[in-house]
Amino acid sequence: MIPKQEKFLQYAILFACFSMLLSCREEQDITLSTDNQKYSIKGNKILKDNQPIQLIGTNSFQVFGANDLKMSSWNMDIAREFIGNVQGQPLTGMPIKDSNGSFLHSLQSIVDGNRKNNRITILCGFGWDGKNETEFTGKSPSKTIWWKPYKEKLQEWALHFKNQPDVWIEVWNEPYRFDRADGYTDEVWEKDMTELVTIIRITGNPSIILVPCAEQGQDESVLLKKGNSFLQKNSNIVFDIHAYEKWLLDNEIAIDNRLDLLKQQNLPVLFGETAPMNAGILMDPRYFLNAVYNRGFSVCAWVWKYDKNDQDALLTADGTPNDTNNNNWGSTYKNLAAKPRNP
């Protein structure tokens, strides 16, 4: 897996000044939701007001520039928010300049911008302090030196958002090495994920929690072995699978079989990331996306970014779909999001 912070530094700098100009007006517009609509899980379905829904969304960098209005024109139901500096990330208030020189918008301002546009917000920590060496991907959570202070931050998030049901917290991004060379076992996954979920639940926060699978998010076998027992002990859980090489380079029959097995196991799943480029190999997500859509799974693209030189970016600098050397990724995903939902 390639380090994601490196992709975002230039983006953050370009948007910092523009974001600061908007920040005062945005903060004045913030209002807490009075919407009593609830989200819940029943079997393998995500429910809104007890009715099954399918969600199509994107990963986004609104921490560097909150309230991207164009996202609504693409019919995005979810913004899975990149939080690369959990330690320095403000919950509320004005944007702050962190130790890396990036301006960070508050989580509440990001949530409020998404809420105004009827989007669910998934808050997900990608890194501890914004440095490459403290990225979460590929790390065994309980073996990191920031394990204890991270849990304290997670508890702060859970307390702050406990009465905002359109805010879902994901406990970690892409845990454990892709090759399991870090001593990984399914029992380690179960212990770590249980501890992180418990940290959120003891605050009284009842909202949906995202729990990632193993091998940097791409291996669903732990869910097939441990998923149902995990759900018996924890409510309102959605499992997050990331679909890169281990999915997109598989053959079509195998993709169908793997998706069908997840359905048969009655596991609530969201594919939290997929894109045509990850570790230097150009892939074609189109068959996978159609298979996911037809089975009613929810999915988020990597990534909502205005940069035709990034093959994973959905948009060019002028906001049109980015189809540059990426199997028409921008148009493919925009067309998917325009379809009626198929829960």
Automatic annotation (TrEMBL):
SUPFAM superfamilies: (Trans)glycosidases. The keyword Hydrolase applies. Residues 150-307 form the Glycoside hydrolase family domain. Residues 317-343 are annotated as: Disordered. Keywords: Glycosidase, Hydrolase. One of its GO terms (molecular function) is hydrolase activity, hydrolyzing O-glycosyl compounds. Transmembrane segments: none annotated. GO terms for biological process: polysaccharide catabolic process. Residues 319-334 have a biased composition (Polar residues). It comes from the Bacteria. Belongs to the glycosyl hydrolase 5 (cellulase A) family. This is Glycosyl hydrolase family 5. It comes from Flavobacterium petrolei.
